């Protein structure tokens, strides 16, 4: 296969990969994508009315310039509330049913040379086995690049790996250098705030799903640690991730005694996250935490931030430094968040 980037046609099966490819200078090579944002009334439908010259997955939406690309996947989940989605997902998995659909004919018509997918979370994106099965039927068979980041450093390394696989090594190196510079600046600020606080980290609780409750896992607690915080309910360090998010009880949440609460449900935009926060707002267990003097609560767009293992995790780190230490002026401009008053 030619190394000429002009000959590459890439289908991204996850939003973070599309972001990474664009950052490395390969946006023009994208021909198909995946999408994650939950719909409110019906499963996401595959778009068949877009000319099959370029495409995307049904959740790929950043940068905004890729939104015109065809979508090759869809979600079988109908979003009403967090609890109802959990019920749907549990039922589907127990019955061996797929959570996502993929338009094999659309995918084949795009004639991709590369498909970028993941093997980290079968709830978050199309599974690797389905992608491999369809790729086996294609001629020529596309190269599959599989991502499985477990930590923040893995995410950064994947930028380099994607760049190398797609002939974008120079762009990837430039991107990683820029991100590392921002990481160093954010950590320097966090270290100064932490030192001024006597070395005592702020206790944090990151809500990845509200009902049932799943705290942030993998790289998210790492970001909190790097920002000067700590998530007792699912701890991590700057070099060791927290592992996959697991369901916890309300009692465990209360016992973690957070000073900082970030509500950021996976796959939900800011408006949907706000609605989910409203559903737990009057619960006794939530008020036992959120109404304590000095506790700060916010909601964040969980479709765009934190839950995607891509370059904008650096934006998330910068946000955490500002929010954890009550320095809103440090929050990146345009970051999709708002304070939540209980």
Question: What keywords describe this structure?
Answer:
alpha/beta, 4-stranded parallel sheet, single chain, 342 residues
Descriptive notes:
With 342 residues, the protein is of the alpha/beta class. The chain has 11 helices and 12 strands. The protein has helices spanning 15-23, 82-94, 104-109, 128-135, 152-165, 169-196, 220-226, 250-255, 270-280, 284-290, 313-324, and strands spanning 10-12, 30-32, 73-75, 100-102, 114-118, 143-147, 202-210, 213-215, 229-230, 260-263, 296-300, 337-339. The relative contact order is 0.12.
Task: Give the topology.
Layout lengths: L9 E3 L2 H9 L6 E3 L40 E3 L6 H13 L5 E3 L1 H6 L4 E5 L9 H8 L7 E5 L4 H14 L3 H28 L5 E9 L2 E3 L4 H7 L2 E2 L19 H6 L4 E4 L6 H11 L3 H7 L5 E5 L12 H12 L12 E3 L3
Parallel strand pairs: 1-2, 1-5, 5-6, 7-9, 7-10, 10-11
Antiparallel strand pairs: 3-4, 7-8, 11-12
Helix pairs in contact: 5-6, 6-11
């Amino acid at each position: 296969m030619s190394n000429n980037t002009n000959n590459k046609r890439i289908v991204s099966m996850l939003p973070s990969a599309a972001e990474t490819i664009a950052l490395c200078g390969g946006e023009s090579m994208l021909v198909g994508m995946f999408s994650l944002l939950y719909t409110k009334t019906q499963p996401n439908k595959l778009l068949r009315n877009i000319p099959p010259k370029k495409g995307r997955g049904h959740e790929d939406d950043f940068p905004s310039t890729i939104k015109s690309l065809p979508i090759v996947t869809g979600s079988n989940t109908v979003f009403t509330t967090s609890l109802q989605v959990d019920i749907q997902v549990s039922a589907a998995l127990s019955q061996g049913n797929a959570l996502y659909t993929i338009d094999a004919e659309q995918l084949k018509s795009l004639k991709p040379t590369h498909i970028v997918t993941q093997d980290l979370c079968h709830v978050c994106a199309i599974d690797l086995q389905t992608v491999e099965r369809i790729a086996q039927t294609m001629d020529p068979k596309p190269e599959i690049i599989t991502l499985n980041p477990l930590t923040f450093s893995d995410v950064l390394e994947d930028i380099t790996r994607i760049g190398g696989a797609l002939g974008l090594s120079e762009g990837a190196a430039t991107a990683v250098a820029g991100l590392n510079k921002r990481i160093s600046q954010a950590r320097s600020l966090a270290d100064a705030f932490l030192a001024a606080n006597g070395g005592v980290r702020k206790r944090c609780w990151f809500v990845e799903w509200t009902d049932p409750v799943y705290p942030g896992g993998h790289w998210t607690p790492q970001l909190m640690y790097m920002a000067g915080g700590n998530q007792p309910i699912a701890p991590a360090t700057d070099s060791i991730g927290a592992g996959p998010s697991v369901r916890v009880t309300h009692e465990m949440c209360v016992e973690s005694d957070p000073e900082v609460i970030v509500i950021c449900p996976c796959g939900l935009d800011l408006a949907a996250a706000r609605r989910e926060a409203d559903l737990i707002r009057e619960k006794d267990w939530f008020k036992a935490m959120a109404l304590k003097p000095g506790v700060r609560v916010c909601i964040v767009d969980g479709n765009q931030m934190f839950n995607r293992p891509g370059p904008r995790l650096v934006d998330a780190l910068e946000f955490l430094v500002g929010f954890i230490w009550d320095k809103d002026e440090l929050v990146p401009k345009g970051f999709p968040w708002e304070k939540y008053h209980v």
